[in-house]
Amino acid sequence: MKTIAAHPLTAAAFAPFGDVIELRDAPTKLINQGMCGRHHDLAAMDFSEGKAGISLFDAKPRALPYTLDMVERHPDGSQAFIPMSETSFLVIVAPDEDGKPGTPLAFLTRPGQGINFHRNTWHGVLTPLETPGLFAVIDRIGDGPNLEEFWFEHPYTVVRA
User: Fold this and answer.
1) Which stretch of DSSP H or E encloses residue 2?
2) Which are the contacts of 98, defined by CB distance < 8 A and separation ≥ 6?
3) Which CATH number fits domain 2-160: 2.40.50.140, 2.60.120.480, 3.10.590.10, 3.60.140.10?
4) pLDDT tens digits, residue range 80-93?
5) What are the domain boundaries of the chain?
6) At the N or C end, where does the chain have fewer CB atoms within 10 A?
């Protein structure tokens, strides 16, 4: 098996695949009589048709080393994952190479970081590393399958860098 090292998630490294959802250094503006900082418009949601929906995902935790044998993508809409607990999770993405995933990259979030996959981005499944694996997910709700899976002939092993 080929090995992939999971590195800390940064906005710059993740930019080709989506957005990192996290607090900015300073809020965009103060609201609620100055008692709440609004960190505004942190992800570029993109849908071909349908509507944005909010769902809750309750995922079982995984562990490193992790075997990566499949990635998926959603051609009709972006997909944001916002953890509802202060835990980290594993994020796997792969560049598109003529309609198939290229060599995957792996990232470890810091507690409090979420992500938004751009539309049609190859990515691994939701992979919390601790319990609870509870996430708010904002994605496209609409007709059509909006899911393409790719199974690797030779799986990868993901380890901490």
Assistant:
1) strand 2-8
2) none
3) 2.60.120.480
4) 999 999 889 999 99
5) 2-160
6) C
